[in-house]
């Protein structure tokens, strides 16, 4: 009986698993694709950033003038009220007294009515001749007083020359004192109040819109700047104070960067000291001292008061405090330029902070627009590592009537409360000077 045949065992080795070459190539392709996407994104960011980046190769104009902090004009408005007020009431009183006397002397028509019509001319001549006598006596009295006054003047002229010289010297001193008291300073006009919205860019990439809230009644002011930054949070800067003889005078400056706590700078006018919460150090409070953002409004107020004084090459120095220190900022006028915004092209004047010391590569550029009441239309801060933060004017977020009386460019002294409240036509001021026009398409 035959049995089933059994195949002899094979001497061949078992087949090896196929290599995973296809999986490796897939990972390589993914890495190449990711690297290519990053390269394309970097190129796009670089091109987009260059469109908003200030021209680094521009030539700074030669400095033609260096302006220091100085007093603002305050006496021009104070000397105007007494020009017409004292003279008008006496004229009205004299005009009222004259007809009163005439009425008393001429009201005797009773004999005229009783007499026949043929005799009125003679009757009229008689009463008119009678009051002429008092007038003649009054004239004689005035002449006598004039003679007495001339005699007194002659007697005074006979006083020794030393007394006359003393009187002349005293009069000269008084005149000089009045002239010094009325000496004008630099023109100064606080911009009108308003809430402005800005497109914000971080290294050329658009972020959430930022805002600048500016409020001033000519005596006090409040400035709040809010700039949102990606992955960091909102940077907010607040400055509030008053207006003194040197312009804006900050009382407190509050800086908050993202999630960090607030850093406060206090300007103590009584002790003439600047104190910080970030450091125990203090600084001497100088005249015209500003914080980082009140300096922009101080510059805008000076330029708004005298636009022609800030031509290309004019540099003005400001003493500016940060959250832990203070130093001199030289701000130079670059010139008039055109800024492109979503609302169209806006004419503006370009200012740039010059290097504060050797090796200073942090740069600040600001463009002030006359059509916005000389408020900023563009602001760019460039860090030493090349990082840029930009604010570009987008439009208005609200209106404020508190600064309407302050928009008159012919009143360069907003610190004078009496003069500001006495200005009769505050609404007609923007017609003479281009003011804040945020409602244009």
UniProtKB/TrEMBL annotation:
Residues 121-140 have a biased composition (Low complexity). Residues 396-410 have a biased composition (Polar residues). Residues 1-18 have a biased composition (Pro residues). This is Uncharacterized protein DUF3108. Pfam families: DUF3108 (PF11306). It comes from Paraburkholderia rhizosphaerae. Residues 1-21, 74-140, 395-441 are annotated as: Disordered. InterPro entries: DUF3108.
């Amino acid at each position: 009986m035959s049995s089933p045949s059994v195949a002899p065992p094979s001497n061949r080795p078992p087949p090896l698993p196929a290599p995973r070459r296809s999986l490796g190539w897939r990972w390589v392709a993914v890495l190449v694709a990711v690297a290519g996407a990053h390269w394309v994104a970097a190129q796009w960011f670089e091109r987009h950033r260059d469109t908003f980046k200030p021209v680094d190769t521009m030539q700074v104009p030669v400095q033609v003038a260096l302006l220091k902090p100085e007093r603002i004009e305050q006496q021009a408005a104070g000397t105007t009220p007494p020009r017409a007020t004292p003279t008008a009431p006496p004229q009205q009183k004299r005009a009222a007294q004259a007809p009163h006397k005439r009425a008393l002397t001429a009201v005797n028509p009773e004999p005229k009515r009783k007499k026949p019509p043929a005799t009125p001319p003679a009757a009229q001549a008689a009463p008119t001749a009678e009051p002429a006598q008092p007038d003649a006596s009054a004239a004689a009295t005035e002449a006598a007083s004039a003679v007495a006054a001339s005699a007194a003047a002659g007697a005074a002229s006979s006083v020794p020359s030393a007394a006359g010289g003393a009187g002349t010297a005293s009069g000269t001193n008084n005149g000089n004192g009045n002239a010094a008291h009325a000496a004008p300073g630099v023109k100064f006009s606080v911009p009108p109040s308003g809430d402005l919205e800005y497109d914000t860019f971080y290294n050329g990439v658009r972020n959430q819109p930022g805002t600048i809230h500016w409020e001033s009644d000519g005596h006090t002011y409040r400035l709040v700047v809010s700039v949102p930054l990606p992955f960091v949070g909102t940077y907010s800067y607040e400055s509030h104070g008053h207006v003194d003889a040197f312009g804006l005078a900050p009382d407190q400056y509050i800086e908050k960067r993202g999630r960090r706590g607030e850093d406060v700078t206090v300007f103590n006018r009584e002790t003439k000291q600047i104190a910080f919460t970030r450091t125990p150090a203090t600084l001497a409070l100088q005249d015209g001292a500003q914080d980082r953002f009140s300096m922009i409004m101080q510059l805008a107020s000076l330029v708004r008061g005298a636009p022609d004084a800030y031509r290309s090459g004019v540099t003005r120095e400001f003493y500016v405090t940060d959250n832990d220190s203070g130093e001199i900022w030289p701000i130079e006028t670059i010139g008039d330029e055109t800024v492109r915004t979503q609302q169209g092209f806006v004419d503006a004047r370009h200012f740039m902070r010059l290097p504060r010391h050797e090796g200073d590569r942090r740069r600040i550029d600001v463009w002030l627009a006359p059509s916005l009441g000389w408020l900023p239309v563009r602001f760019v801060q460039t860090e030493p590592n090349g990082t840029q933060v930009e604010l570009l004017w987008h439009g208005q977020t609200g209106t404020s009537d508190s600064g309407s009386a302050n928009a008159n460019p012919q009143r360069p002294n907003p610190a004078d409360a009496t003069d500001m409240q006495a200005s009769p036509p505050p609404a007609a001021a923007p017609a003479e000077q281009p003011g804040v026009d945020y409602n244009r398409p």
